[in-house]
Design brief:
207 residues; mainly alpha; two-stranded antiparallel sheet; 7 helices; Rce1/LyrA-like_dom
Length: 207
């Protein structure tokens, strides 16, 4: 049965050939979570203290590199447009950073502040790539865009963040995921969702 398109949005950003998109989605989430936990445990055992190696590197590997390798292994073509709305996103982010640094400069050490800005940019990029771009496009092969956004948001809030408080996931992460899904579907770009996600994480860190 052909899925109705949402206005100008289509699900042709991923060319999955004859593969079952739901199985690919399960593999994607499973590999993401397992590889991230394995890396965190390994680095903890090795007593790595460098925050970049301990936090940022596992994020890049598990949320960006591993999904890319999985798509390549399964011969799935990803036609993401990384530059759509990029100028707007950069302008919004720079404006936010100026206010953020001025407001919280006394609360955070400047060297760590810049680390967290870079770190959360990587976190947001990886999470938006998997749980917005890939999952919505994969699920959209079998269900409506609304159902895809809702299901991917539930996976993001309650499976990826299963170690967090249920109340926080229900009233913070789930609404955030739904909003980010809506922005992604409307713009067909990850630029704005990544910036909004990063801004959210940076604000939560200091409140």
């Amino acid at each position: 049965m052909e899925i109705k398109k949402y206005k100008n949005y289509d699900f042709n950003l991923l060319e999955i050939n004859e593969r079952n998109p739901l199985i690919v989605a399960l593999l994607l989430v499973g590999i993401n979570i397992i590889s991230f936990l394995a890396l965190i445990i390994f680095l903890s055992v090795q007593k790595i203290d460098n925050p970049f190696l301990k936090l940022t590197v596992p994020t890049v590997i598990s949320f960006i590199i591993m999904p890319k390798l999985l798509l390549k292994f399964l011969k799935i073509n990803d036609n993401i447009d990384a530059f759509r709305y990029l100028k707007t996103s950069i302008l919004v982010f720079i404006s936010f950073l100026l206010v953020y640094i001025f407001t919280f400069r006394a609360k955070l050490k400047m060297d760590f502040m810049f680390f967290w800005i870079i770190h959360y940019l990587f976190v947001a990029t990886g999470e938006e790539y998997i749980y917005r771009h890939l999952l919505i496009n994969l699920l959209g092969k079998k269900m409506s865009v609304i159902a895809s956004c809702i299901l991917s948001s539930f996976v993001f809030a309650f499976i990826l963040h299963n170690n967090e408080a249920l109340i926080t996931n229900l009233f913070c992460r789930l609404p955030l995921a739904l909003i980010l899904s809506g922005v992604y579907v409307r713009t067909r770009s990850l630029s704005l969702p990544i910036i909004i996600h990063t801004i959210y994480d940076l604000i939560v860190m200091v409140i």
